[in-house]
Amino acid sequence: MANPTVRVLTLLELLQTHRHMSGRELAERLDVDRRTLRRYIQALDDLGIPVTTERGRHGGYRLMPGFKLPPLMLTSEEALAVSLGLLAAQGLGIAETAPALETARAKLERVMPARLKQQAHALSESARLELPSARAPGDERLLILFATATQARQRVRLDYRDDREQHTQRVLNPFGLVYRGGRWYVSGWCHLRRDLRSFRLDRIAEATPLDASFERPADFDPAGHLASSIASLPRATAVSVRFHTELANIVAELGRNIGVFTPDGNAVMLHARTDSLDWFARQLVHQPFDFEILDPPGLRDALSEQAARLLRLAAKNDSAHVEID
Question: Which domain range does residue 114 map to?
Fold first, then answer.
């Protein structure tokens, strides 16, 4: 429970659940010292939640008698959105949030009307979302740190380990977080490389917010930048293909990981790189759209080999069919 916001909310929950608690009990439950506890009590007071302090041997803290938080009012659509959000969060690879998801669901169901409670409970028991499985453990602390730094426009110093196990220290202007393919990434301006970069959170050993601030580009798309970065990874051979279809159609067939798609009149251009022309030709064979290979010539040869293979298989199956008849 390292996040102060989580501790303040837990303090409120304790005061609502228990009629009276001593400062020692609250400090132990929150795992903080008495000075920090008083700061959290003040935070509740600043939010308009009156906490009375009773001094003396049997003193402690309690919510002002008669004070109640307003009931949580959700429409059916809002309850569905919250329930689906909790289901989706289960697959994001952040182990620390697993208990919190269950307690959050229980608290929501406790204050929902009976009909919405039944709906949310049924959804949590019967629905499953097929999201990409987490391929690396998420770090709650880093996730909150970069989210906060992004919102506050605050630079971050980080120790990073790349895929070659080389360690570097970077200063980053974080522009946004992305969960993609079972991993968390942070994208932004890297001062070491003097360019936009994306970093896997599971490869960040340490991160420290700095006092320096920055201006975030208004039109920056973290997910789009990450997709473009992955598609542009340095591979052996550059590929250019024009597809005669709409952008949404070809992206649905090939996915954005394969390369960078750009509209080209009534067609779509794909610029990519690959270490295997045979593999790339196999991806093209699956497409229901007409296309033209602009580069390299070797990809045309690889596609011809795939076509010849399919014709051989078709002829072989035709012969087998005749023999069976």
Answer: 76-126
